[in-house]
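Model the whole thing, not chain by chain.
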Amino acid sequence: MSRDGRAGDGLRLKIEPLRCICCGLCETVCSLHRDSVITPMASSIILHVDDKANYFGLVLKTKSEGLLMARPEGVSSGQQASGSGGPGAKPILLREACDLCGGEVRCVKICPARCITVVD
Amino acid sequence: MYLRSNRVGIFDLSSNESSEQELGDEANWDRLSALYIADKLASEHGTDSLVLGTGVLTSSFVPAACAGIVRGSPGKNGDPRVMPLLGFAGVELKLSGFDFIVLKGASESPGYVWIRDGIVEFVESEEMKKKDSWARTDKIRADQGDNKIQVLSNGPWGDSVNPASQLVTDYWGGEDKSGLGADLGRKNLLAIAFRGMGELELSEPEGHLQDSMVLMAEHIQRLGKNEGLASYSKALEREDFKKLLHRNIACYGCPFPCRSFLKTSEPANEMKLVANEPGYLHYDIPALEKAFALGFDAMDATMALMKCARAGAEPVTVLSYAAELSAKVKMSSVAEVLSDLSKVSQGRAVGNFELSFDDRAQYRSCLGLGLCPRYWSKVGYDEAAVTPYGEAALGLSSHSK
C-alpha cells in the first residue's frame, strides 16, 4: 500500500452514485475502521443527503485525487466538499483520507448495492 | 456499556428543567427491548409522558438495524400507543447521547425540544405554530444550521389534539398510525428534533461486523430483485406509479429499500438538484392502497399523501372521510376534509409497519430490538437467530455464531 491511498498496484475506489441506496453503511463501517466505534463522524466517506428532494450521493476524501464527489448527476473530483452537515459535524477537510483499509476495503465489502468498487 | 450511552434524558416541559438517570446495566436479553424499557420509564415518570428510545441493536451492523420508537399515552384499550422511528431517525437519536428521552408535563408556550450532544432543551417558537410540518422541519434545520437534523414534526392536526393526527418524520408520513401528534399537541410541542454526533462501542467490533455481513449476504441472495415499495404491495405494481418513480431509498443499514420517491413537479428521471419540493417519499402502504382503491392515480395519491403529511393528518382517515363526502373522491374532497378539523373526531388507521407481522408479539420483539419490522418480516424474523449477534456485540457472549 502506498502513502497516497492507492494500493501498490494502483487500486482506487470507484463510486457509481445511481446505484447508491442511501443506507449509510459505508460511513459507519469506515468510522469503525478508524476508531473501532460506531459513528459517522470519523469516516473518510460521507453520505450527502438532501432528503426533501431525494437527492443523495457520496463524498470520498482521497489522498491522490482530493475529494471525489459522487453526485447523482455524475462523479467529479478535486472540488470543495459538501455533505458534512452542520456546524457540529466534523468537516471532511479535518478527516483522514481513505487508506483503502490497508487492503481489505470495508465499504466495498459491506455496500449492499455494489455502489462502491475497487478498480485499477 | 456496549451499544448504549447508558443515559436517559428527562425533560419536564412544565418547569423547563432537564435531568438524567442511568439506564442501568440489565444484562438480560429479555429486558433489553426498547418497548419494555419505555413502559418502565413511563410508569416511573407518568403515563402521559412521551418516551423516545432506541433498541439495543439500533445503529449496529445487523441488517436494517435502523429502528427507534416513540411511546405515547395509552389508547382506549389501555395499551400504550407506539410508532416506529425509521429512516435515519432511530440512528440519529441513538447517537444523540441518550438511549431514551422522557418528556413530561406540558409547556406553557409553544416550541420544540432539541436534543444533541447529551443536551435536551426546549426552544420556544410562537412563530412556528403557524407553519405546517414541512415548514417546521425546514425552520429547525435552518435555525440550527444542520440539514441532517431529524425532526419529528407535528402539524395543525396534532396541534389541535385531533385523534386522527400523525407525526411526520422530517417530511414523510407512514410511521405514526396511533395519533401521537395529539400527544405532542397536549404538551404544546410543535416538534422534537435530534442529531446524533456521538459514538458507540461494541464488544467485538470485528466479529460483529463480519457476522453481520454474512447475514446480510444471505438475505440479499434470498430477497431477489428490489422494486422499492412495490416489493411489499402488489397494489403498487402499476405503470403510473413506475412512471413517477425517481429513486428508491433505504433506511439505515437496510439492503432492500422500501421507500419510493415519486416526483410530481419535475420529470422522474431528473437527477440534478432542481426543484426544492419535487415530490413525496412513499412508505405508507395502507394509505396508498386506500387512495388507489378510491380511484386515485399515482399522481393524485402522491399529492393527497403529501397534503396529509404537511397538515399532520393521518391519510387513511382523511381519505375515508373524503369518501363519505362524495361517491367520487377527488383532490378537492381531500382538501375539504383537511381544511375542517371538526369533521374528523376519531382515527381510523389500521396500522402500517404493524401489519408486517400477523403475530403482534413478533412485531414488538423485532421493533424492541431496533430492527425494521417490514424488512425482518420479509426475510423471516427469528429472535433466537438474531440474539447471538446482539449478545456478542454487547459482550454477553464471546461468539456471535
